Structures are given as structure tokens and as C-alpha cells.
């Protein structure tokens, strides 16, 4: 929604489906403005933000923290390993506690798919929820930084040929991106071993072999092989995967001069992509990480716009 000051305002950000195209582009454009002005830490504000990560993370966790500190919010430490979760406390009760002590925004990564549904439906929890990744569900802030990176490169999405290659069935990045890229007019291809491709992807694009489309691509979006989610699966061969599905030097040379390579990271070097291609001229992997800070600033900005508008509405009653 747009508030009375004409600014984007969001109560929560948990999935990409809840955003309109206009809201997506407003977030991307606001992130671009933050990138252009590159503001350093602003004077301390009154709002509190807690980053609640129940799975390991470097890029998402720390870029949210940098974004929060640049915007001047008070960042509350939370360490799942030393919290009451170890005493059997549920996620709901942990967030209920955070809300009760005055945390305005909870940025949460959790291994449970759609963990946020119970939280945002609660009339008691007043904190806004930002999904930093749920199980094998979605990763909206990663999707938005990916969209920003593509938009910076091409200035549009309509008609772009984009391949998403790798561990599709376990990738929240793939699921968030396919929804928005399809809606914004991109032509999608999915590349993965048969056991990592499910019917849900057929609604959004074609299941193809990388070698059949590589010369046509504008964007090759590689995904990390998520070894930690392949419990009980057959032994994985990194060399075989790289040969059949990875970006090798031979495939890199077949990409168009204008094509770009993306990866949400962390990268399994020599598996999804040959080691020295991570920082190659066509790679935008480092730029994605940079854009993550500015996108997360835009997300927090929209969340706080909503909360401030709610406060004004209450005061004016």
C-alpha cells in the first residue's frame, strides 16, 4: 500500500505473492536510490529490530544488520543457540516474547516451511515479520536483490531469457524468483537433475538441458547444491554434477557477451561454477551481495512506513 505521504508501506514481508508488481518495483527503485546515495549510519532511531536466525547465514543475516544500522535502528542481539528454544520454547512463543518487550520488526530465518503463517495471523503479536528464508519455501529479500541486479543490467524484465539451474526442489530462491520473473514477463528455463525437478516448476517455464539453451540466455542463475537437505540420498559426485549441470569454461564462452551469471551464494566452487568464473567479467555474484544491503534497507523502510502510519492513525482517532 501507499501511505498518506506517498511512500510504500508494508506490514510484513513473507512471500513474493503478497506483493504487487508496483510494490516490487517501488522496492527495487528505493533500493537503487539508497545505492546511489549510499548513506552511512543515520542518527539512532527509536525502533528495535531483532534478527532471529535459526539456520546458518552470512549474507542475509549480516546484510540485514548492516541495513538496520545504516538506517539507524536499534539492533537487538538474538542467538538461537543460547535462547529459550533450547528449553523447548516454540517459535511462536519466542516471537510473542519479542513483541511483548517492544521489538518492532523480527527478521526470521527458520527451517520450517511457512513458519510465518501463525505469527502474522496472531492478534497478540504486534511485531512486523520479515521472512529471511523459510525451509524450502521462499526467500523474498533474496528475490528482490536478484530483481534489482537484473534490472540494473537490462532496465526491464519483459522477454528476458532466464535459466534457473541447480537444486530446484530445495531452493527457496528458485521458488521466489520464478513467481516474480514470470509475472514480470521473463521467459524461464529450469535446469536440474530429474530428481530435483518437480511439477510445480512446469507452470512457470520449461525443463531443459543447459547445453540446449546456453547461447540464448540473458541470465544464468545458478543455485547452490544444498547438501544439508539431501539426507539419505545417493552419494553425490561433484565432478559429475559440474560436467552435466555446472558452468564450465566451455559453457561460459558460449554465453552471449551481454549475458550475466548470478548465484545466491555461498558458492560450491568447482561444482555449480568453475572456481575462477565466480569473479569473471560476466559474473554479477559480488554485485548481488552488494545489492542485498540496499534492498534490505528498502524493505525495512517500507515496514517502518507502515508502522509509523498506524501510529499516526491511532493518534488521530
From TrEMBL:
Keywords: Pyrimidine biosynthesis, Transferase. GO terms for cellular component: cytosol. Residues 158-302 form the Aspartate/ornithine carbamoyltransferase Asp/Orn-binding domain. L-aspartate binds at residues 87, 172, 224. It catalyses: carbamoyl phosphate + L-aspartate = N-carbamoyl-L-aspartate + phosphate + H(+). Residues 11-152 form the Aspartate/ornithine carbamoyltransferase carbamoyl-P binding domain. PROSITE patterns: CARBAMOYLTRANSFERASE. It is an enzyme of class 2 (transferase). Pathway: Pyrimidine metabolism; UMP biosynthesis via de novo pathway; (S)-dihydroorotate from bicarbonate: step 2/3. Its EC number is 2.1.3.2. One of its GO terms (molecular function) is amino acid binding. GO terms for biological process: 'de novo' pyrimidine nucleobase biosynthetic process; 'de novo' UMP biosynthetic process; amino acid metabolic process. Carbamoyl phosphate binds at residues 59-60, 109, 139, 142, 265-266. It comes from the Bacteria. Coiled coil: none annotated. Belongs to the aspartate/ornithine carbamoyltransferase superfamily. ATCase family. PANTHER family: ASPARTATE CARBAMOYLTRANSFERASE, ORNITHINE CARBAMOYLTRANSFERASE, MITOCHONDRIAL. Catalyzes the condensation of carbamoyl phosphate and aspartate to form carbamoyl aspartate and inorganic phosphate, the committed step in the de novo pyrimidine nucleotide biosynthesis pathway. Heterododecamer (2C3:3R2) of six catalytic PyrB chains organized as two trimers (C3), and six regulatory PyrI chains organized as three dimers (R2). This is Aspartate carbamoyltransferase. It comes from Floricoccus tropicus.
